[in-house]
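Exercise 7. Given the components listed, write out the predicted structure of the assembled complex. Treat all entries as one system.
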Amino acid sequence: MLKRKRKQSDFNSEMEAHIALEADRLKEQGLSEEEAQAAARRAFGNLTRAKERFYESTRWQWWDELYQDVPYGLRRLRRNPDFTIVAVLTLALGIGANLAIFTIVRGVLLRPLPYHDPSNLVEVYISNPSHGTAEESFSPQDLDDFRSQAKSFESVSGYWYEPGMSLYTLLSQGEPTVIETANIDSNFLPTLGVAPALGRGFTSEENIHGKDKVVILSNSLWRERFGGDRHIIGKPIRIGGGELVVVGVMGPDFRFPSPDVGFWVPISQVTDDMIPHRRGVRWINVLARLKPGVSPVQAANEATVIVARLARQYPTTNEGWDKGVVENLRTAIVGQAMPILLVLLAAVGLVLLTACANLANMALARGAVRRREFAIRSAMGAGRSRLFRHSVIESVLLAIFGGAAAFAISPSISAGFLALAGNAIPRAMDVHLDWMVVLFGSALTLLTGLAIGSVPALRLASTDVAESLKASGARASAEPARQRGRDTLVVAEVSLACLLLAASGLVLKSLWKLVTTDPGFEARRVLTVQMVIPYYKYHNENLMNSYRDELVRRVAAIPGVQAAGAGKTMPLAGGGEPYQFTIRNSGRGDIQVAPEGGIYIVTPGYFKALGIPIVAGRVFNERDFKEHRYGLLISRSLAQKYWPGEDPVGKYLYLSRNNRLEVLGVVGDVHNEGLNSRPKPAIYIPMDLMSRIKFDLFIRTAGNPLALAGSVRRVIHQVEPEQPIQQMAPLEQVVYESIAQPRFFAVVMAFFGAMALLLSAIGVFAVLSYSVRQRTHEIGIRMALGAEKRDVLGMVVGQGLKLSLIGVAIGIAGALALTRFLASLLYGVKPTDPLTFAAVSLILIAVALLACYIPARRAAKFDPMVALRYE
Amino acid sequence: MLTQDEKERLELLQGTLDLLILRTLIFGPEHGQGIARAIQQTSEDELLVEHGALYPALQRLESRGWISAAWGVSSNNRRARFYKLTRSGRKQLVRETAKWKRLTAAIGRILESEAGEG
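Answer.
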């Protein structure tokens, strides 16, 4: 129904006509022309006001009025600098924190992976449900069979990357440097739908061992090391032990499977003796692209059919490995961080909600003071809707200032969060401001402004004008309904704070449990050194072993060193190798032993250096090898699993029919895969049996481990000047960094909890101060009638306490309902931990009491006579 | 400038003005000034129509479709905007009149009883 709007000029001429007609009538009654004109105008009243009203009732003047209302709002904000500053700061922090978390969520979870049609990219795993292994890599043979049989995939590619495991020493252009390397097959880049920025990818010929001395460089390595030479394609580069021909250079955005990778080399370069090409040894990651229209579930079903067939076909190696798992690539990359980020997003949203309640409360208090002003303006003819708009515009202006400040500070906040997170958050380099963040921030700002403004505005709109005018300015607002509104907001604030505190309490307690978990080793006073043997010099096992033993011996001889040993992997970092053993059991048949925690490759000094207790038997020693007496150590839980109630020492484990290893001893369980994961049955075998070019040195010292760093470095370089030292750090730091993710989560949650606590304390304080001011007169009467200071104190504190208790009760109820969503992120704490809930309630009530105390004391100090006269 | 007499005139309750305008227009099209004068005269000068409030009211009624307006020429040859009742305006007048009568009767009963007690 579109009605043509009347124009202002049309209305004006109608007004003129009215006055002319009125003047005509008055002239007929005998007035002079001038008198008649004047009287007619007088009778009409305020002509401008009439025009204004007409103007207001049409709708298209909305923008014009905004034009007036905005400067008006700004003037009002300038006149109340205290309120404005507090509100803008609160909003800046509240919106800023939301923006920061959202920026991270956007970068990590929402931004599509930078590959062609990333939604069809999946990782495929083989799984052994009876064994409890959910996601395992493929063996080369299994992958070949899988690739030839699977129909759900457009392409299937195998790659191998383990941080710090595949390394090349780059000798061209400058200092020898160890380069992290991913081994990929020729399908890898086509599957991702990515081509090198320069040159080409690998050909299928280069999948064959011996024709594979080629390399693709990462963009950053190419720029930093080779000056961005565009003619590098086809040229050889020198690496330890030989040369590689550069066939391609990736684009700057390509960082798969890790941003640390500098070289991509053919998977056939994984040398035979490093990783056996046996069906039972599963080490190849499978990346695949689904055919259009094939769902991951269908693909997983097909994968299960294929691997189950292989399990029947090759029972010795594949028995039990009969389930296929297909996981979206993005989930595979960010899945672990997802619950944490979502919980943080929810938490920071609750903080903003608390801030909104707080500011709405403050605005309500100001609204109460302004109520008379509004009533007068309303009586003078200002439309209700316009008054409503004034209130909303004011708070939207506040929100815009706060939002602008939030945009300014949020990059620092998210950078701070990410720095705190360390490597705990994947895709951190994808985190930056973009249109979606800006859109989110703007919408959030606007919504916040509307939310804050509409509360007092609705109150005002329901104000009875006549009542307000009759009541005196200050007391007008003591009416119960208004106080109820403010009380409700405070209760809401306290319960939100309670909910957040309960959640952060649980997370903190969980972190505390992690920190106090006994890792199974003694981390204090241990120095760790990450090294890769320059294998171009030590190219066979004997050379490697004697070089490594010489290193360990020389380091152990440094004054102040109590013990030294080497291990293939850092404790807590996982990396046990998935070997399988057999226990020959004459009576009951053979038992397959695949240690869930894998096998760990160590030197004899490892256990003493790390302080891992020997439970039974002894550690292997150098004499064992001289006498060709090969033995291994098992962990306590493995001993209990396979030899319950028996002494396993002296028993044998078979690697193959003719290759058996004696159990020499039993060692304590170690959290090899991280503090938050149960110690799993593990086997330790001597490094001499499986030499590794990459290993870590563990050096137990008498004092501060870092004090010996210089001498350790010197001694290492005395033995081999070309030995690169990747990293030197106290083991305690390694332990500390291993819990970066839970610590990041706990610290940020605690930060949000503290913000909510502070806001709710301010809320309680403000509502009580206000109420005390409102009740000055009443309190005066009470005191005049003989009430003691104590009574007044009790009355005010009681009022605050009541609100806080209701808030705490609601908050705890909400927390009980919601914290179960935290369950997967907690360690050693139930989501309804009574101790945490009790502590949180006590903290909140204590803080609320503190917030009550100041206004209560002020009330108790009233001079009854002054209070009575106060109006 | 108002005389004592003018001050004692009754102010119109909100909403009442709409009813009176509709009622006035039942006799035929009239311009704003004419409507105001008619109300004052018919009420024997008891009711004061604030002219400033009249036009927004006309505006309101027009937008609701109860009256329609067109420019015309007044009896003394002045161009003026004439308002006339529409069909739905007539219906509204009937509805509002009934409501008003019930209301005044009810208020009247209350006031009578109070007067009786006092």
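Discussion: Residues 472-478 of chain A have pLDDT under 50 and may be disordered. Chain A touches chain B through 24 residues (CB under 8 Å).
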